[in-house]
C-alpha cells in the first residue's frame, strides 16, 4: 500500500511539473511559435464589395479557365486571394474569378499574397506549404511547414456588412517545385480549401 501511494504521489508531482513546463513554454514562446507556423494575429484593414469587384489583374497575369490555372509572369507580383468567394464553397479560395486555381510563379519572384475574408461565419487564413493533399482533418498544426519564409497570412476574422478583413504577406519564391496554398484553420484544408502553387522557370 505504502509503495503504491508513493508511486501515485510521484506521478502526480511529475504531472504537475510537466504541466507547469508546458504552460510556461506556451506562455513564453507561444506567439512566436504560432507566428512561425502560420498562426498568431494578423493585422488587417477592411475592404468592401467595390474593392473586390474592381480587382485588376496586371499585364503579366495569364488566366486559363480551361486548366484552372493562373500564371504570374512578373518578378514582383501581387496575388489577391478571396477566402469564401461568391458562388463557391465557403471552404474555397477565389483568385480572379477562378476557384482554387493552380498558381504559377517564377523562381525568385517577390510574391505578395493579399488575403481577403468574405466569409461571415468563419475565420480563414492562407499559407503556402510543402504539405501535399489529401489533408487529414487534424493536420499537424504545431508543425506546419511553410514553403517559404513568411509565406502565410494568419487567419482573418469574419467579413460582415460589406466589410471584409484584408491582410497581406510578402515573400520570395526562392525554391522551384510544386507546393500548395491551403487554409490553415483546423479542418478547412481537409474540406478542399487549397490549391496548387508552382514555382517554375518554364512559361
Ligand atoms: Cu478556412
Question: What's a quick, concise take on this entry?
Answer:
This protein has 2 helices and 13 strands.
Folded structure, characterized:
- The protein is built from two helices and 13 strands; from the N terminus they run αβαββββββββββββ.
- A seven-stranded mixed β-sheet has the order 2-3-7-13-12-9-10, with no helix packed on it. A six-stranded mixed β-sheet has the order 1-11-8-4-5-6.
- The protein has two domains: 1-36; 45-200, Immunoglobulin-like.
- It is of the alpha+beta class.
- The model is unreliable at 25-36 (pLDDT under 50).
- It binds copper (II) ion.
- Copper (II) ion (CU) is lined by residues 83, 124, 183, 185, 188, 193.
The CATH homologous superfamily of the largest domain is called Cupredoxins -  blue copper proteins
Silhouette: globular
How much of the sequence is in beta strands? Answer: 25-35%
Task: State the CATH topology of the largest domain.
Answer: Immunoglobulin-like
Topology as H/E string? HEHEEEEEEEEEEEE
Considering DSSP H and I runs of 4 or more, what fraction of the residues is helical? Answer: 10-25%
Q: Which small-molecule ligands are present, each listed once?
A: copper (II) ion
Which regions have little confidence, pLDDT < 50, spanning 5+ residues? 25-36
Number of helices: 2
What are the main properties of this structure?
203 residues, alpha+beta, Immunoglobulin-like, six-stranded mixed beta sheet, globular, binds copper (II) ion
List the helices and strands and how they pair.
Elements: H1 2-36, E1 45-47, H2 49-53, E2 61-64, E3 69-72, E4 76-83, E5 93-95, E6 98-99, E7 102-106, E8 110-117, E9 124-129, E10 152-156, E11 164-172, E12 177-182, E13 194-200
Parallel strand pairs: 3-7, 4-8, 7-13
Antiparallel strand pairs: 1-11, 2-3, 4-5, 5-6, 8-11, 9-10, 9-12, 12-13
Bound molecules: copper (II) ion.
Copper (II) ion binds next to loops.
